[in-house]
């Protein structure tokens, strides 16, 4: 992990505020520049769903493959017109979670997954990820390490 400074730097940047870790299921609020209010989530599945909806609405990053359903049908999405930023990067960076705050910058959606970088704001450390699963492992590992240092223990 390397220091990169405090910035969002992309139109699809997400600030993930983790407020609770209930036996491996994280909870908190997710922020992006197109909504003034935080979007509550419980678990990584909801984070991925919220983020995918944002990326599809923005048309960025472009999806390398379409979503498929169980019957093999491929679904594509149209960029939503009228997506207007309502929060500046500085406002987004003021948001914080009790357990940790992460800035997620998905740069590509290739091979039916995400590639990009994540910054742990509390320590200003950035690491690149090659898939959504790797992103989850990075966040979980960081939260576990922080819980050990703080003496709170994971899952409390």
3D structure, described in words:
It is a single chain. The longest helix has 19 residues, at 132-150. The chain is α+β, with helices and mostly antiparallel strands and 156 residues long. The strands form two sheets. Strands 3-2-1-6-7-8 form a six-stranded antiparallel beta sheet, with helices on one face. A two-stranded antiparallel sheet has the order 4-5. The chain contains three helices and eight strands; from the N terminus they run E-E-E-H-E-E-H-E-E-E-H. It has one domain (14-150).
List keywords for this structure.
6-stranded antiparallel sheet; alpha+beta; two-stranded antiparallel sheet; 156 residues; globular
Provide the fold topology.
Blueprint: E1 14-22, E2 25-31, E3 39-42, H1 44-58, E4 67-68, E5 74-75, H2 89-93, E6 100-108, E7 115-120, E8 125-129, H3 132-150
Antiparallel strand pairs: 1-2, 1-6, 2-3, 4-5, 6-7, 7-8
Please sum up the structure shown:
The protein is of the alpha+beta class.
| Overall number of domains | 1
Helix-strand sequence: EEEHEEHEEEH
Helix content: 25-40%
Which strand order does the major sheet show?
A: 3-2-1-6-7-8
Q: Proportion of β residues?
A: 25-35%
Whole-number mean pLDDT:
87
What is the first-to-last residue Cα distance? 26 Å
Residue ranges: pLDDT <50 for 5 or more in a row? none
Helical segment tally? 3
User: Structural class given helices, strands, pairing?
Assistant: alpha+beta
Oligomer: single chain
The outline comes out as globular
* Total beta strand runs: 8
Largest sheet: 6 strands, antiparallel
Radius of gyration: 16 Å
